[in-house]
Design a protein that fits this description.
Helix content: 40-55%
Order of helices and strands: HEEEEHEHEEEHHHHEEHHH
Protein name: Reverse transcriptase domain-containing protein
Shape: elongated
Strand content: 5-15%
Length: 244
């Protein structure tokens, strides 16, 4: 990946590669790498397609690999003409998509987060719950599973987005029903309030954490990075769009 990044940077310096800006006066974007995944950015024109294709061919020849066409997609902005988009996607042989889908469980392109947007998180928790036979578990076993698995599933999403209160309430409702159990198809009566259950053990609780308590520290961490790590690319993009 280092060789590919170096080739793209060289193409930028000589003016062959045309990077894009997500925001007017924002930083230039030509490529993003994460592990073995990458996104290439460029203007939608025939010359740029040839430049990208030549660099990718050199990269594949250098490593002796081939691009997986089934796992590679091409995405155009709304301002690109449909006929031009079809020609470029046909030139590369990549499938044209209108959405990048999810990466590490998080949607890459989305509007404002709503309860429906994050419905998949609730469904993920519910599917995990239904895969266990709660009748075979003791109360301690249910609490342990709820603490280690059920409440850990949404924690990743909370780190990357502001999860609506309605989604948190639905997930905690699923966890409460799982912990207290069912009788004849109906939820058993809760013996103590959920706030008491989520208290630390020295204070009489079971040390379960409420999802609303997850959100605040993660959002504070993002805010701290925005203020302190101003040289990071993603922070430069945010500053160029939202800073006064």
């Amino acid at each position: 990946m280092g060789w590919l990044s170096h080739s793209i940077c060289n193409a930028n310096e000589v003016g062959n590669w045309s990077p894009i800006r997500l925001i007017r006066d924002g930083p230039l974007l030509s490529h993003l790498f994460f592990a073995d995944d990458l996104i290439l950015f460029g203007h939608a024109d025939n010359n740029q397609a040839w430049v990208m294709n030549d660099i990718l061919d050199e990269f594949c020849d250098y490593l002796g690999h081939q691009i997986n066409m089934q796992k590679t997609n091409i995405f155009f902005s709304k301002s690109v003409d449909d006929s031009l988009g079809r020609r470029i996607s046909g030139f590369f042989g990549f499938q044209e998509v209108t959405n990048f889908g999810h990466y590490l469980g998080v949607p890459l392109l989305h509007d404002k987060y709503t309860n429906n947007t994050l419905r998949f998180v609730v469904d993920k928790v519910h599917s995990k719950l239904t895969s266990w036979d709660a009748r075979q578990l003791s109360f301690v076993g249910k609490v342990t599973l709820a603490q280690s698995i059920l409440l850990s599933i949404p924690s990743y999403f909370v780190q990357a987005m502001m999860v609506p209160k309605g989604v948190c309430d639905k997930i905690e409702c699923i966890v409460r029903k799982f912990v207290w159990g069912f009788h004849n198809g109906s939820s058993k009566m809760t013996l103590v309030s959920w706030d008491s259950v989520c208290q630390p053990k020295p204070y009489g609780g079971l040390d379960l954490r409420q999802l609303k308590d997850y959100k605040t520290p993660f959002m504070m961490n993002i805010g701290f990075n925005i203020i302190s790590n101003v040289n990071a690319l993603w922070i430069q993009v945010l500053w160029s769009k939202y800073s006064p």
